[in-house]
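Deliverable D5.2: sample structural annotation.
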Amino acid sequence: MPAELPWYIVDEVYVSINCGKEFYWVLVVIVLKERLIGVYDSLSSKRKKEPPIEIRKLAVMLPTYLSDNGFYDKTEQTDWPSLEAYKGKTTQQTDLVNEIPFDVDYVQNIPQQASDSLDCDIFVCAYAEILSEGLQVHSCGFDVASQRARYASLLWHYGVKKANEGYTSDNGDPPRPRKSVIEEIDASAIITLE
């Protein structure tokens, strides 16, 4: 799904969030029709159960942000006040009360990283990939080394393809001068790990 789609035409928004001043990331899935923030935390079994301050701030700030940006006015695809999650949260004055935060739910029974590792990036990527394919994240057989090699291979292949086709960017920004040491590589020479 393209990143520039407006929120009012999607059901879920995926956001990676850095927690605290640590080098630690979680994936949050904002389920707009349920007023729910699902937290996919690869260290949740080792952390206290209260959501980090960043998640709590998001839950409180999100309704105001959506309201101030006219999100709830876009009812072509969804009649927001008629949804069960929004009932009882409306007023005559503003249509939707900004002071009622989104619910936060820590998703359980998902793969967990070792407490002494710095692998949260791989877990966040895997969670997002699995969920974006419409699947559920299960806590069975997650091999971090294999996932890291797989993502490295995918990124390398993507970089080679862009270099071979002369692309410097995926957006409309003016191209920057490139210092390229990547030679044109035959696609059959690329090894994919599965």
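Annotation notes: The chain is about 25% helix and 10% strand. The helical segments are 53-68, 120-132, 144-164.
The annotation will be released with the project's public dataset once the embargo ends.
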